[in-house]
Structure prediction request, 568 residues.
Amino acid sequence: MAYVSVNHAVKYFSREDGSEMLVLDGVSFDAKEHGITCLLGPSGCGKSTLLNAIAGLEKLDQGGIEFRVSSSNPTPDTRHPTPYTQTPRLGYVFQDPRLLNWKRVEDNLIFAFKGMKIPRESWRGLLEKYLSLVGLLSFRKQYPLYLSGGMRQRVGLARGLAIEPEILLMDEPFSKLDQLTARQLRQETVEICARLGQTTMLVTHDVEEAAYMGDRIVIFSSRPAHIVEVVDNPLEAAKRDLDDFAFIQFKKRLLQTVLKLVEQEERV
Amino acid sequence: MSSLDSITPDEPARQDQAIAVPSGAGGDSLSTEVSFRRARSVAGRETLRDVALRVASVIALVFIWWLLSLFFPPSLVPKPWDTFAEVGVIVTSGNFFTEMGATLRRVLVGFGLAMIVSIPLGIFMGTLRSLESFFEPPVILGLTVPGLIWAVLAIMFFGLTETSAYAAVAVTIAPMLAISIWQGTKSIDKDLIDMSKVFHASVWSKVVDVILPQLISHILAAIRYGLGLAWKVVVVVEMFGFSNGVGYQVVRGFNVFSMKAVLAWTITFLVVMIVIEFGLIGWLERSVTRWRPRVEAWRR
Prediction:
């Protein structure tokens, strides 16, 4: 299984007028192996940029992303991560699901299978497994534009999962959905990720989402982003309940950190 | 099924929904089904009305023609039915098929050549800055040169051969096709390209699965304009001294001052055009845009 660590990532964006803007100001953290790491921070702070850098869509100006393999049953003292010779298999779930609307649901998954060079014999099994996991098996022959927003987002999720990635990246995947659908999909995603055990990194600006989904929460400051705090969730994934006292406590604690951040910002 | 197809938005359908809604999840799907069927029957009625409107517009044109023929001598404006009879003669004598066949072949070969060059050129111009700067002047210049000039140049260069007809058609429409695809390529969704990169799509898959489908409406529009232009050019080329083709037949009609023959050939031409437009291109459009729900902006 894969292990991701971000080491002193620095990224500048060039503006229209040629000046440079610092987006990531030396960001370092380790993602939680087999778990969900939430990158929490205000909108536009550079979390998505970092995710794109991990996916190889952006180049960092300094620092780097390290992928390592560790033994399949890691314990803190015997783990000896070895560097990857190439990028591990990555899945990406986008904010707006970025489906190919002219392809049927199953062909959207097959598009990813072809790109990831997954042998043709396994396509059928993977399709059935992951489309039923997101509850869309009976819609496999539909075109995306005939599905609801929540269903399309599930197709995006199924596509990210079906290539059986070692690392799954998710960029605010539920932010454009209504509350009820988002809540349901969050719960399902947590269950699916717990079952499959890949290393997941999820970008969000929603404190409750981070508290509910994240096994580890990395709090980003606003731009230029640096890391304010890395918090491990005291509650196990299965025991997180939105109405539970311990959960609410934890959520409050996160919220306070984030609010303090906003106040500091306003003072400056 | 057949009885449900004819459901109009009145009592039976409403009752179904009223019963269906309180009964929970199962009822919900039933009511969707009913409204779906209703939508389909509305769509059926609309296509019927569309056809009726089209037929009415053709009849109106023929009527105006007939009115004109009352005021002018038949050598200038022949009676519509005399002209239609002439069309019948052209078709039954077999002339139609050989002449139209020659013209069609010239249009299609020239058109095909233009497509083969323009689609890749347009895509490259839309995606690579340097190629855009390099090819922009010739494409824009090519667009401004009249088809007649291309026809003259092609005949001077290739002589009265089929090649000059193909070349004239291809060169006339290629810039228009290229511009349309070039501009279309600029509007493709960058996010989808990123998505295809994340999933390591091959270059072939990027072009076929991601880029071309986004260009399909631009390509269809280009095909329509392109065919229209191609017809105009090919007739001009044929008039210059070819011994067959619709353009040649029109010139022959002109030389003996037979308005009836000129009009009759023009009509056969229009009919073929309409068959291609509504039949072939319409079918192509429907089959490649099935994934897209129809835009119904004005229906309440």
Q: What stands out?
A: The CA atoms of residues 228 and 273 of chain B lie 9 Å apart. The mean pLDDT of chain B is 82. The radius of gyration of chain B is 26 Å.
